Amino acid sequence: MRAPIGDFGNACPAPDCLDRLTEPVAAAVRSWRGEVPADQLLYVDTDPEIADTAAFVEHHGADLLDHSANCVVVAGKRGGESTLAACLVLSRARVDVNGAVRKQLGARKASFAPMATATGETGMEYGGITPIGLPADWALLVDAAVVDTEWVLIGSGRRRGKLIVPGKTFASLPGATVIDGLGIPAA
């Protein structure tokens, strides 16, 4: 099967590639109940050495920047309590941590979670964290521009491999809140 975006040689429906996903992501695909059928979640094999966005688009083409999204883990703090959440923004933007995230989480302070926390709590590899398969009690903040993108390239839970998913999928993921302005232009 040909991928709907990018120059990937072969795309595989995620339910047929569960062994290539981390356990949390595979479990989410196995129990999928989204409005978009699970076989529209596509897995493409990619080189883990170029998993980071800049290297990835340099290798696969700058046009993917308009179809790629990054999922980052944030920690909101208020009164000694810390809340973890994930944010999904297009790769050409950065997460408005001190504005939109802090406000949405009702936090006094918000920051990116340390790598060990992000990977340990999600069960995913750094550089491959994806909104599919996040812990059930987490908020998922999704920039409206992601939802409005026809096909979106995201992590697969590992540095090797990516998922290509219809943008509208993200609005119906567990804990998802779509926010205008969550992603702000990168400097």
Automatic annotation (TrEMBL):
InterPro entries: YbaK/aa-tRNA-synt-asso_dom_sf (IPR036754), YbaK/aa-tRNA-synth-assoc-dom (IPR007214)
SUPFAM superfamilies recorded: YbaK/ProRS associated domain
Pfam families cross-referenced by the UniProt entry: tRNA_edit
All residue ranges annotated as the YbaK/aminoacyl-tRNA synthetase-associated domain in the record: 48-168
Protein name: YbaK/EbsC family protein
Organism: Streptomyces niveus
Phylogenetic placement of the source organism: Bacteria, Bacillati, Actinomycetota, Actinomycetes, Kitasatosporales
